Amino acid sequence: MERTFIAIKPDGVQRGLVGEIIRRLETKGFTLVALKLLHPSRELAEQHYAVHKERPFFSGLVDFITSGPVVAMVWQGEGVVAASRLTIGATNPLVSPPGTIRGDLGINIGRNLIHGSDAVETAQSEIALWFKEEELVSWSPTVSPWLSE
Ligand code: DAT
Ligand code: MG
User: Fold this and answer.
1) What residues have CB less than 8 Å from 14, skipping those under 6 apart?
2) Is the distance from CB of 110 to CB of 57 less than 8 angstroms?
3) Which of 37, 62, 79, 99 shows the greatest Cβ crowding within 10 Å of its Cβ?
4) ipTM exceeds 0.85
5) Would you say 52 and 118 are in contact if contact means Cβ atoms under 8 Å apart?
6) Cβ(137)–Cβ(33) below 8 Å
7) pLDDT by residue (tens digit) across 17-72?
8) What CATH number labels 3-133?
């Protein structure tokens, strides 16, 4: 079953939006298989955003992600990687459509509340970076037959 890595960034935690953000993914029908609150190290943040290391916003992005606790999660479900990106919305909250997490809850690209893996392979490496294998819980919700045929 497909899995993705989702993180609520320090702005989402500080603004008290953890429940609201989890609610949106949960009510969509995705399954939570791992969750932890942690204050990421600079090393972890730099590895996570390594693809952006030459970009002008990189050091500010790492400062921001390491500025407070983050809620790191793994979600599972049919097409969860692409579908959760749609639920999250565009990178810039100002142009992210209403109905999306970033569109409804944010206004600034540097404070866009949430990270979601952009492809299945990225998801696998991000899950391995943030979680140990034993932190992932394999389970099947009893409502599964009512979500997928
Ligand atoms: P996404 O998080 O939508 O996958 P991304 O991978 O292009 O976006 O960029 C990672 C994060 O970097 C993004 O969530 C916010 C920040 N970022 C991207 N572009 C930026 C910019 N032009 N100015 C400031 N921060 C930016
Ligand atoms: Mg990205």
Assistant:
1) 68
2) yes
3) 62
4) yes
5) no
6) yes
7) 999 999 999 999 999 999 999 999 999 999 999 999 999 999 999 999 999 999 99
8) 3.30.70.141
For the segment 80-127, what is each residue's pLDDT rounded down to a tens digit? 999 999 999 999 999 999 999 999 999 999 999 999 999 999 999 999
Instruction: Spell out where 40-146 has E strands.
Output: 70-76, 114-116
pLDDT at 10: 99
The residue extents of the domains of the chain are: 3-133
Pocket test residue of 8, 57, 62, 65 for ligand 1, highest count of atoms within 8 A of CB: 57
Q: Which of 9, 49, 61 to mutate to test the pocket of ligand 1 (most atoms within 8 A of CB)?
A: 61
Token pair listed for 44: 């972890």
112 is in an annotated binding site: yes
